[in-house]
Amino acid sequence: MDEAIRSALVGALGEAAVLIDEEARNGRRYDQWAVKHLRDWRGEAIAAPGCVVRPATAADVQKIVRIAAERGVPLIPFGLGSGVCGGIEPAPDAILLDLRAMDRVREIDEHNLLASFDAGLNGMLAEEAVAARGLTIGHWPQSIAISSVGGWVSTRASGQFSTAYGNIEDIVYAVEAVLPDGTLVTLGKAPRAAAGPDLRQLLMGAEGTMGVITGVTLRLRRQPERRDFTTFFADDMAQGFEAQRRIVQSGWLPPVMRQYDGREVRRLFRDHDRGGKPMLLMVHEGPGARVEAELAAVSQIAEAAGLSAGDPSVGRTWIEHRNHVPSWRDMFERGIIADTVEISGKWTEITAIYNDAVATLNEVNGVINASAHSSHVYGSGINLYFSFAAHFEDSAKMEATYFECWRRIMEATARHGGGIAHHHGVGRVRKPYLVRDLGEDGIALLRRVKQALDPAGIMNPGNLIPDA
What's 3-98's CATH class? Predict the structure, then answer.
């Protein structure tokens, strides 16, 4: 890092906020993307940022951004590092802007059901703060304990209860952000607005390329009066998809609707395996009378669609263990490279996407698992969460197989008209496939927006936006 830049940062924020020691820099070299963890485990060199800067306020962020803009220095916003698509790839000349010190609960408004937080606040801490008032954000990503509320917005995240409560774009009320020229803006001030284009969308899903999110205001809901569970088994995935379509199109919205194929049932719910049949698990919650009515209606619809009832306690087991996952290093030590890839498609597309992707994954040398489950449901379609795993004695073969599996899932999805990204974002792993969703003209429009907001190209360069 250029000494003049470091001195400017120290002058603006103080010595303690500007870290150049090896431990601080190496700890921010990448996020949770499997590829970077694999390369690090194999002993390959991974570049560290030139320095790590820890702002405490939005005003601090403005100072940092202005210094970077004046000198043309790359600037990489970093929340809690839970991204899984390679959104973090610093260069030695880059400033990494670590937001974890911005962790205040700014306000909880019980009357209007709103809560405002610093962007770096841990998601679980945000949820616990409102839960103490009998409220909930209702946003439960699997990464809730290791992700930040600003990161949720920056990646357009989904939570496990999204079918009823919506995705992050449905929960966000306002976004505070520092633009690439250092301007501080607050976007969103009313329950709903027709005040021109929704400028919040410039930051949602931008993954640090359009500015730095410094604060968010989220809509809240009251804690549910009752929670219950149902489980059903289908003869095949198509039959289960059809049952889910009928449920949501009838107006019922169980917050959690998850359909696992037979391979995932055997792996995750071995004691409940019914000969490889797919399993549909649902969580029902809300006012007691509504839950009672929903349980009866959903059971009737599922039976009419040909599904058979299972043990509802599966849902309680899932609730208790849903966020437990092994570390990448644990898998590598066992000779396994794996990942999960989430996509979405209309009801008329989803079965073909599932069949095609699983079949083509099973053709890849070394693959020992190719499976999927659905976890987010809409009136017009549904998402799929593919899982793949490959085993090799020689770890040198892992990375090429990883990218081959990703390619096959992306191409199978696009082949049948689906969307190549549901809620993990784009990062670097999906960047080559973004044209499948946006088209060449859409990519050109995205570049024009980037050029207008960040003409010097300092904000998280190389992420999200395909190279011209």
Answer: alpha beta
